[in-house]
Amino acid sequence: MNQNLKLLISESEIADIVKQLAQQIDKDYVNRSPVVVGMLKGSFIFLADLIRQIQTPIKNIELFRLSSYSNATVSSGEVKMLMGLSDGILSKQDVILVEDIVDTGLSTSMALQLLKAQNPASLKLCALLDKPARRRVSVKIDYLGMTIGDRFIVGYGTDVKEQYRQLPAIYVLEE
Ligand SMILES: O=P(O)(O)OC[C@H]1O[C@H](OP(=O)(O)OP(=O)(O)O)[C@H](O)[C@@H]1O
Ligand SMILES: Nc1nc2[nH]cnc2c(=O)[nH]1
Description:
The longest helix has 18 residues, at 11-28. By secondary structure, the protein is of the alpha/beta class. It has one domain: Rossmann fold, CATH 3.40.50.2020. The strands form 2 sheets. Strands 4-3-2-5-6-7 form a 6-stranded mixed β-sheet, with helices on both faces. A 3-stranded antiparallel β-sheet has the order 1-9-8. It has helices at 11-28, 44-53, 106-116; strands at residues 5-9, 35-39, 60-66, 81-83, 94-102, 122-130, 143-147, 153-154, 170-173. Helices cover 22% and strands 28% of the residues. Bound molecules: 1-O-pyrophosphono-5-O-phosphono-alpha-D-ribofuranose and guanine.
């Protein structure tokens, strides 16, 4: 493991944030049963923790992965599902997209567009972390865990070259 990791958000702080987010979601979804959609790979640990704190009955849990974009200017029309969502599975559903981090906003806005195309009854975004310093596309985060500075983070599902996803806390990767 790389030694240049500086703790940013501890396991217990993450747990508190996740509980608060679940409480907000419970408050908003009384008498509704949302479909929770996790965007892979980064959100898988956050998603697993979040759904276990949500008391509201969840109708369905879906996972998907977008094709990566090499050029940030690529149009949303060219984004492909690498691992999908079946056609129409979100139609008329109350959908919550779960993201680990919104940075430039490109991934999330593309994901939201793809989900919206299935005509959900409602669509909300829950993101553990927001890094607004490098935003290129505006993204409305309905349920936000924490805003962070312009630092590259790893752990708790997030990676650098597929490393560090297993770490239970969130660290800043220092060069
Ligand atoms: O706001 P953006 O600048 O688009 O960055 C945020 C995205 O980047 C990461 O995913 P990544 O593409 O690294 O894939 P991964 O989730 O499989 O690690 C993260 O999980 C977000 O989905
Ligand atoms: N691991 C990781 N992935 C990202 N994708 C966009 N921003 C980040 C970040 O800070 N860390």
